[in-house]
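Annotated sample (chain length 243).
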Amino acid sequence: MKYLLILFFCFNSFLLFGQSFEGKYFGNFLDPENIVSIELKKGQYFATILTSSKTTFVVDCELVEGSLRFFVPLNDEKKLRVTAVSIDQDLELSFTLEGENYTALLKRIGTQTVSKDNNKEKIDKPFLDPEIMGKWIQLGSHYPSGEPTEVDFSTKGYYKVFTKDGRIINDSRMFRDVSAKNGHSFSYSDIPDFNWSMRRPNILITSSPEFGSFEEEYYIQNDSLILKTTGGFKTYFVREIKD
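Output written by the structure step:
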């Protein structure tokens, strides 16, 4: 059963699990004594940067492939693009200034904070989005670089069903074909169980007893569905239309 589970995830992405950036961090960034505070409000990250000269910047952050990206105003009216990643509860900032690349490690102050936003309980309560319910046919997958994967899914017709009671039914033919390609016998009992839900708008949570849970962004337009992992791996589907 293990090889089937591993192959299943190879088809769907190289998964990076979600994390929280919220907290206060201290270190040498714009000057030797910066404090950077990151908060999550209504699904949007904000960074407050306090310098040793008591200058304060409040900037919006964009969540990009498991990292935060924000822009800090400079004295010459230009903006410094900063990318932040979480490393062992601390925050590593990377940026380019005057053609040179820099990194700065900011240490977390205290324990990891939890957002007190009044709407957080509502946002975090699991729900099922009716828009994604139904049967979807897989068209293809792209690496984060934009290059298509080696497997041409458009000729396979593999499907994925999101049921009204929160289950995911994956096409058994995919497991069968992968097993045959790798010289293994196939048994329907080897197919793992998966469930789905949402905790925030456009965030799909897939869970299984074997693997726990992971998050993907999802986008629906007309009869098209895109699933995007935090690593930037995209899978494309089209809704099956019944006559």
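Annotation: Confidence is low (pLDDT under 50) at residues 1-18, 117-123.
Annotation: Helices lie at 2-12, 120-124, 172-181.
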